[in-house]
Amino acid sequence: MPDPILQTFPLGFPWQTQDPFLFCVYHLDHYPKGNGELGPDPKHLEGRNIGNDFTIKDGWRMYHGQTIPGFPYHPHRGFETITIVNKGFCDHSDSLGAAGRFGQGDVQWMTAGRGVQHSEMFPLLNTDKDNPLELFQIWLNLPKADKFVEPHFKMLWHEDIPVIQEKNAQIKVIAGNYRGAQANDPAPNSWAAKDEHQVAIWNIHVEAETEYTLPKISSLATRTLYFYEGSEIYIGDRKVNPNFGIALDPFQEVTLKIGAEKAYFLMLQGQPIDEPVAKYGPFVMNTEEEIQQAMEEYRLTQFGGWPWPYPDNVHDQDKGRFAQYPDGSLVEKG
């Protein structure tokens, strides 16, 4: 039988991806107690490159945040962001007037389409204990035909996301179909919205010193398994260390033999869009001319402007999980 492993590669920042995915990043930050204003005590900010703090110091980073960690307002066009918050919280605000606080396993699926600004801040809600954050952000491309759709965001609340318990494993089905368990619908214009594109996003946890078999599919989809926490695993006779990605043959079942520690994986799969990709920062189009057009439109219109009082907008300390949509509708999860 041919080797199911097509390639292995170390996980950097961001992680290497395959078409239809553009980008994947894993944030793990062990934030300290909050200061009552949703940030760390100012004494912890000394010695940091505030505004561009991507180096782990004391176990965490401020990213582009000045007083609250996270990413103040910035634009996107031409693709989708899928944000999985396993631990901690993310405060969302955008140029459409939409907002939300999500975390503890929730997922936000946002279609940037023709253009949107948003902020993603990580409020330190706990003032009596630490504020760990574990978050994946995935960029899923849009085909040329859908790059100018209206912006849209959807919440996949953790209470509604299928979680499959197997003998030795737990599989969170964020997108796609896992052994008959169908994920919630993605955003309506997503490449993932059509079953034939075989898009799947699974977060897989496997117990130590056991085996787990990843099911095969009959598709030319790309499939990448990211081994982001644990000790060594074996696929056949090949040893794979943690913090490595594994490009797999989708036509073969793959049995993972887990080492001495519980293993954690993210799996990204999808039929390639197979179109030219031109990227510049937060813009992803098909040609350099379209990138220049996007930059000019953003300069002139700010993609609708910014209706919030601060570029790093956050919500009240005592606010629970919620989503406020552009049409004014509100969902509160507590």
From TrEMBL:
Classification via SUPFAM superfamilies: RmlC-like cupins (SSF51182)
Taxonomic superkingdom: Bacteria
InterPro entries: Pirin, Pirin_C_dom, Pirin_N_dom, RmlC-like_jellyroll, RmlC_Cupin_sf
All residue ranges annotated as the Pirin C-terminal domain in the record: 202-304
Start and end residues of each Pirin N-terminal domain: 62-140
Family: Belongs to the pirin family.
UniProt-recorded name of the protein: Pirin
